[in-house]
Amino acid sequence: MKCPYCGFQESKVVDSRPADDGSIRRRRECLQCERRFTTYETVESLPMVVIKKDGSRQSFDRSKVLRGIQRSCEKRPVPVAEMERMTTEIEQELQNNLEREISTELVGEMVMDKLKKADEVAYVRFASVYRQFKDINTFMSELNKLLNEK
Predict the structure, then answer these.
(1) Distances (CA, A) of 88 to 92, 96, 127
(2) Whole-structure pTM value
(3) CA angle, residues 16, 18, 19, in degrees to nearest 5
(4) How do the pLDDT tens digits run along the chain, 150 residues long?
(5) Distance of alpha carbon 44 from alpha carbon 112, whole angstroms
(6) What does the alpha-carbon distance between residue 44 and residue 46 come to, in Å, rounded to a whole number?
(7) What angle do CA 63, 58, 82 make, to 5 degrees?
(8) Residue 127 contacts residue 105 (beta carbons within 8 Å)
């Protein structure tokens, strides 16, 4: 961090604490002139764009992922905290993937992967809507895949 007084490039952190706006307030001391100054750090979140099946684009909406998981887990023994955790993990994985444009297919596969581990019935519910099962044979083939994995 460059000192605002003398321009020296090195400083040490004397104190660090959360600020009211969600950023981090750091009190620093210049290693050359020994004067103190305050900096504020915020996490940079790059916007993600979701490319839908029809080619249209819209910004990533965490609440849509959570709603899909909640619908799949309706009347199932999956705690709300677990659904929130799944959603947060998916969002973090997408943020860590440095791609700013992601497909709905990728998001859907990630949701199915999390649901498969949490609750098989919720997984099948989500998969039936997401993969647009046309008939009972498609449904049965997905169930057979699930049984064979066990």
Answers:
(1) 6, 12, 20
(2) 0.65
(3) 115
(4) 899 999 999 999 999 998 877 789 999 999 999 999 999 998 776 789 999 989 999 999 999 999 999 999 999 999 999 999 999 999 889 888 878 899 999 999 999 999 999 998 998 889 888 777 777 777 778 778 878 887
(5) 28
(6) 6
(7) 20
(8) no
With CA atoms as reference, report the closest residue to 45 among 26, 58, 59.
Answer: 59
C-alpha separations of 17 from 27, 28, 40, 107 in Å: 9, 12, 10, 35
Residues 110/93, Cβ–Cβ less than 8 Å:
yes
Q: 24: part of which helix (H) or strand (E)? A: strand 24-30
Burial class (CB in 10 A: 0-12, 13-18, 19+), 42: exposed
Crossing angle, helix 104-118 and helix 80-96, to 10 degrees? Answer: 140
Residue at token pair 């023994």: 77
Identify whether the C-beta of residue 35 lies closer than 8 Å to the C-beta of residue 5.
yes
Query: What is residue 38's three-state secondary structure?
Result: strand
